[in-house]
Amino acid sequence: MKGLLLLLAIVFSVSTNAQIKPAEKGVGYGAKITAAGAVEVNVLEEAITKNGIFTGKVKGTIFSVCQEKGCWMKLEQTNGEGIVIRFKDYKFFVPKNIVNRDVVLEGVAKMTTTSVEALKHEAEDAGKTKEEIDKIVSPKQEIEFIATGVLVII
User: Fold this and answer.
1) Span 52-105, pLDDT tens digits
2) Which end of the chain is more exposed for a tag (fewer CB within 10 A), N or C?
3) Running DSSP on this structure, what letter comes out for residue 88?
4) Which among 104, 3, 5, 120 has a CA at the least distance from the CA of 57?
5) Domain containing 74: what range?
């Protein structure tokens, strides 16, 4: 019986990990999208400042990703900060090797306030040290992008 349970656990683990394709040029995650019509990050930032919301496609470089299961990532902003990318309805993930890749995202972005608890959880998922996590003591105003699709372009 133990052998059967171990075999099932291995099969489940392999099949779950196999569902996330490596982050290579042309590979997509979530809804199928193209790069056509994607704008630079600064256009998204301007839309958020002016309208409070951005809907559409944006292209940029990923500089951080959840090291637990690829359930979030961060897109580099013009000021060096990161736009938090989450995936609509938690329906898909991205591989951990997506860091330093250029991507196109499609979805909706807006300003949000992230709680200390959520920031600490995110820091843990990113592999930050206990000392770095302990320095998080206040909520953060940041852009959050809910992606319906991601396409690796470089």
Assistant:
1) 999 999 999 999 999 888 999 999 998 988 999 999 999 999 999 999 999 999
2) N
3) G
4) 104
5) 2-152
- Half-sphere CA count of 154, side-chain side, radius 13 A: 6
Q: Which two tokens stand for residue 99?
A: 């860091």
Global pTM reads: 0.82
pLDDT in tens, 16-39: 444 678 899 999 999 999 999 999
| Strand blocks (E) in 4-101 | 28-30, 39-40, 53-65, 72-76, 82-87
Tokens read off for 49: 């400042």
Half-sphere exposure (Cβ direction) of 129: Cα atoms closer than 13 Å: 3
CATH number of the domain bearing residue 33: 2.40.50
Q: How many domains does the chain have?
A: 1
Both structure tokens of 128: 């930050």
3-state secondary structure of 136: coil
